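Quick start: load a record and inspect it. Here is NUDIX hydrolase:
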Amino acid sequence: MEVSSIVHKLKGRTPTILGQDKYFRSAILIPLVEKDGETHLLFEVRSMKLNRQPGDTCFPGGRIEQSDSSPREAAVRETTEELTIKEEEVDEVIPLDYIVSDSGRIIYPFIGKVAPRQEVKPNDGEVEEVFTVPLNFFLENEPEVHQVRLQVQPADDFPYELIVGGEDYNWQFRETDELFYQYHGKVIWGLTAKILRHFVELLKA
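Running the structure step on this input writes:
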């Protein structure tokens, strides 16, 4: 193939994330709720009936379906389904930075104002309970930071003979920060905590 043909074929294309069609794509919403005259963030505790991460604290959200026109629509849809509220009760939806995680996931976070209610009755098939935390708590308190070491573990049939060093190849490992917020017995950690700190940093900037 000639250089001119290559340039013609690729010129003007918009780059995306390499291999993103194989990633698990999800969208979440940080619900902002007015409560007792101040802004709170609403969290869910995942149902103990779920196979993945039962009992963990998270924001409403889930897989982006083919029927969703955008990550924003997916975030709103998942929020209304999990909190059993109407779409018109979610307003001022604004995107934050998206995350590409080591586990093969792309997460699109949003914030959104959720109309206040006397009581939220979540979908008990997915949500064990909901609770709120005053935004000021996160503005005034830094998370605890603990490190996790990520190391490469080749499969048993890995072709060591094809790489320099063979079985003695010097695989690199790295350490990543895990964040923990604790509020009245509730623990917020993992990607939820990372998204939360990003949101707080944007407010402080």
